Amino acid sequence: MRKYILKRLLSMIPAVFVVSVVIFLIIHLTPGDPAAVMLGDQADPEAIAALREALGLNDPLPVQYLRWLGGVLQGDLGQSLYSDESMISMLLSHLGPTLSLTVFALAISLIAAVPLGILAARKRGALADNAISVFSMIGISMPSFLLGLLLMLVFAVTLRWLPAAGYKTLAEDGMAEHLRYLVMPSIALGFMEAGLILRMTRSSMLEVLGSDYIRMAKAKGEKSLAITCKHAFKNALIPIVTTVGQTFMGLLSGATVVESIFNIPGIGKMTITAVQQRDYEVVQAVVLFVSMINIVVCLVIDLIYAAIDPRVRLSA
Amino acid sequence: MEMVKERPLETLQEAGRRLRQEQRALTRRRFFKNRLAVLGGAITILMLLIAILAPVLSPYGPYDMVVADRLQAPSAAHPFGTDSYGRDVLTRVLYGARVSMSIGAAVAAGALIVGMAVGMLASYYKVLDNVLMRVCDGLSAIPSSLLAIAFMAALGASEQNVIISLVTVSFPAVARVARGAAMVVKEQTYVEAMRAAGAGSGRILLWHIAPNILSPVIVQVSFVFASSIITEAALSFLGVGVPVPDPSWGNILNEGKDVIYSAWWMILFPGLFTALAVLGLNIFGDGLRDFLDPHTN
Amino acid sequence: MEAEKILEVKGLSTSFRTERGVMKAIDGVSFHIRRGEILGMVGESGCGKSVTSQSILRLYDEKYQVKYGGEILFAGKDLLRLPEKEMQKVRGNDVAMVFQDALSSLNPVFTVGHQIMDTLRIHQGMKKAQAREKAVEMLRLVGIPSPEKRVDQYPHELSGGMRQRVMIAIALACQPKLLIADEPTTALDVTIQAQIMDLILDLNRKLHMGVMLITHDLSVVAEVCSRVAVMYLGQIVEEAGVNDIFDNPGHPYTRGLIRSIPRIEGEREKRLYQIAGTVPMLSQIPQGCRFAPRCPRATEACRAQMPDLVPVSGTQRVRCWHADGAPA
Fold first, then answer.
1. Among candidates B265, B255, B281, which has minimal Cα distance to B100?
2. In this structure, are residues B95 and B58 in contact, taking their beta carbons and an 8 Å threshold?
3. Three-class SS of residue B166?
4. pLDDT digit string, tens, across residues A109-144
5. Torsion angle of C-alpha atoms C56, C58, C62, C65, degrees rounded to 10
6. Which residues of chain C does A219 touch, with a Cβ-Cβ cutoff of 8 Å?
7. Cα–Cα nearest to C101, from C48, C157, C167, C191
8. Nearest alpha carbon to residue C113 among C139, C91, C140
9. Measured between alpha carbons, how far is B54 from B100 in angstroms, rounded to an integer?
């Protein structure tokens, strides 16, 4: 297992490198002068030249990249044009709401999707299976911002059961308030992922249930429930765990939009504000930060994967 | 494997009747599945027709403002109501189909070409394989909408830039499918034989490998089409996609969000169209995959 | 005096629901197995040997897949009439099964010890520590070296022969009265095959259980079985003591199978004998005698009406219109 972890850590390096290059290039290889774009249409040429110099934009690209990467490695992610706060502390202060939102969304989608997927596989072809399939199809076709708006329309505007937007912290306002504000955003965000997890659970359960070792378990005299829950589920879990990894990425992606609909002061909201203000270093820092979180989550998922499947763990 | 409580013994006729019933249920299910795929294709074609025929179908012009008629609820004159500038929402939703569907189709085509090229090259040349696939890994390690947003921030909001950034976001998945399929085809005897007969690499890739990996790639591309419609709508919703006043489903929804307390129709109708277009493509892609590979599911 | 019959199958039929209609894979199969006896069941692939064996344990999904008919009498009870709960007590406990492909039949995410312990805990209500001890003992019984170490390993860490031994250990853990072995050696190397067969033979003597050995390898049958049933297209076409089968085969199909065994001694035929044609699909079962289209002796009568399985001498029963005539 230790060997596997080491191998997996080493394999992260190229991905991290590519991510850093891509993020750097997005901002620096764009048509037009970033300095001019930052200062807006009416800026005078001297100010632009000064900013170019200050940002080091006159150096060759590789030099700029290495300087930026050096800074990043020392914890210097750049500086916002509109705030004196350090980038790290800006990111960390926006991380809490995003984390709450994604964790709730993931929890909701797992709780809904896994049992339904198992049920659908056990009742394959029956009415329940068809109904669940239709439900998951609608799930994966429903963009989070659309579901968010529809939920808002029904539960906040029409029924007035829930607040339309905003955010209450767990620490200051308590769990009940925290959840009351997060319930719609979490459902909006988690719905599509639930659809994906549901389909994966169903198809991997179906595959496992048709396998020789399930027949063997039956021949050993296992009860139907034990076959599904023990012999089949642990095997079916392997592809499901992979899907959950992709799901997390989808959640981080979708959080941007959902936060902006529900006015939640998370990382996504921070990105959109930075984009609107043309605060490029913030955009760059956020994308890098979120991508790193994502890479770490993928690593954790792979380790869980290895913990479940001895073939992965021992073949390393 | 399902286990059931023992039934009381059946007579032969009863058993026969039950078997026939279950047989019918099985046939029904197959038909149901095929019908779903046909339905998905039909929805997609309908959406494309709406996009093409928007100027003919629309009762008004997409930019016609009648300030006196602003925020009108649906009526005979305005079946989907009007927006805060007094523009006809039905007209804007139909023209929005034009924008959203054409962006989706362009992204699908772009991702198909780039993804096929990258995937096939990676499968064929060992040296390129590592480089190209690591780049794809890196690109897919960045959450897609964030990457697209960063691109749009750098490039500026325009339809063309939306297409460029969405192709960048979605080609790695296509490349991975293309590479996997090409790896299999490459090992097949007839390709080996071609190579032994001295056929050039370009010729082999283009005329012998490409056509044989098309079906799994097309399935993936149909999902790219669907997800591009979602991401385009999300970008436009956030104000970094298709710039106003051009109508797209995303920016109509964005305008609708500001008036959510007074004009539900500005959310519901563009929302329904978006969901329907995506649903159609997803069902179609699913059906296509089942059709091409009966083993899945 | 002969030992008691532990299994008696009477007119068993197994029909599958497929997308193209109901297929009768097994049609009126009857045979029995006595305590301590090894019955060989032979035939080409697709003849219904495996379906017969899995029907005895009712392993097919009865809700969607299959419909059984006839009787399967085990220890005086008809297994086909048993409620599922009672059936679970039979499976793995009274009647155990060894499958062909050990790698796919063992659960990849549990240790082999765990998989042996499962059976013990289900049927004998053993506690974990006790079951583990017994699992080690079973591994030793089936001839796995250093069982204390192997017990904690996963199936993919063992060799093919060892995995098959583990399967046998799982099957024998509760000392079943009947062991069904479905091509237990087909996936293995020749030397390992012999070891596994020796093991089954040895355990059969030691534990005095009945064994139903499914195989397409007649030389194995000749070595270990006391009686043989030959299956063709879902029916038993001949059943006899092992000596009768080899010395005096009654059915043309049996004769074909025997003639296609490669011989080491004696006069060698120039080419290995082949039975003409292939086993037809279940959807294309011929009229009359099912073997007629491939049979060198088929006549109009054969093609018109299906013969019954009739006794020809002592314990030998044959399903052929020409059975009483001289062998061809």
1. B281
2. yes
3. helix
4. 999 999 999 999 888 777 888 889 888 988 889 988
5. -70
6. 57, 59, 91-92, 96-97, 99
7. C167
8. C139
9. 12
Q: Among B92, B250, B112, which residue's Cα sits nearest to residue B174?
A: B112
Residues C322 and C310: their CA atoms lie apart, in Å, by 11
With CA atoms as reference, report the closest residue to A206 among C18, B3, B297.
B297
Residues 215 through 254 of chain A touching chain C, CB cutoff 8 Å: 215-224, 231, 234-235
Whole-number Å distance between alpha carbons of B68 and B87: 10
- Give the pairing type, strands C178-182 and C38-42: unpaired
Q: Does the pLDDT at position B58 exceed 90?
A: no
Counting every residue written for chain C, the total comes to 328
The set of chains that have 3 or more CB pairs under 8 A with C is A, B
User: Alpha-carbon torsion A26, A31, A36, A39, what sign?
Assistant: negative
| Interface contact flag, A215 C105, Cβ < 8 Å | yes
Partners of residue C214 on adjacent β-strands: C41, C182
How many other C-beta atoms are found inside a 10 Å radius of the C-beta of residue A299? 16
Do the Cβ atoms of C295 and C322 come closer than 8 Å? no
Q: Do A150 and B2 touch (CB under 8 A)?
A: no
CA angle B44, B47, B50 (to 5 degrees): 150
DSSP SS3 for A230:
helix
Contacts of A143 in chain B (CB under 8 A): 230, 233-234, 274-275, 278
Between positions 140 and 169 of B, the ones with CB within 8 A of A are 141-147, 149-156
Q: Which of A266, A270, A278 is nearest to A81 (CA)?
A: A278
Q: CA C98, CA C185: separation in Å to the nearest integer?
A: 10
Low pLDDT (below 50) residues in chain C? 326-328
Q: How far apart are alpha carbons A260 and C47 in whole angstroms?
A: 66
- Integer Cα distance of B183 and B216 in angstroms: 13
DSSP per residue, A4-69? HHHHHHHHHHHHHHHHHHHHHHHHHSSSS-HHHHHH-TT--HHHHHHHHHHHTTTS-HHHHHHHHH
Residue with tokens 């808002």: A152
Q: Rounded to whole angstroms, how far apart are CA atoms C291 and A275?
A: 79
> What is the predicted pLDDT for the residue at B11?
53
Q: How many CB pairs under 8 A join A and B?
A: 159
Q: What is the full DSSP assignment across C6-58?
A: EEEEEEEEEEEEETTEEEEEEEEEEEEEETT-EEEEE--TTSSHHHHHHHHTT
DSSP single-letter state for residue A229: I
The answer to whether the peptide bond before residue B216 is cis (omega within 30 degrees of 0) is no
ipTM over 0.90: no
| Residue C270: φ, ψ to 5° | -65, -45
Cβ of residue C74 closer than 8 Å to a chain A Cβ: no
Instruction: Determine how β-strand C5-18 pairs with β-strand C66-74.
Output: antiparallel
Compute the Cα dihedral for C152, C156, C161, C167 and give only its sign.
positive
| A14, A203, A290: residue with CB nearest B143 | A290
- pTM of this prediction? 0.81
CA distances in angstroms from B200 to B123, B190, B191, B205, listed in the order given: 16, 14, 11, 9
Provide the 8-state DSSP code for B82.
B
Q: Take residue B6 and report the two structure tokens written for it.
A: 């023992």
Sheet of strand C66-74, all strands in order from the earlier edge strand to the far edge: C21-34, C5-18, C66-74, C77-78
Q: Which two tokens stand for residue B238?
A: 């956030």
- Phi then psi for residue C78, to 5 deg, are -85, 110
Q: Using 50, 70 and 90 to split pLDDT, how confident is the model at B9?
A: very low
A142/B146 Cβ within 8 A: no
Reported as a single tens digit per residue, the pLDDT across C193-202 is 888 888 888 8
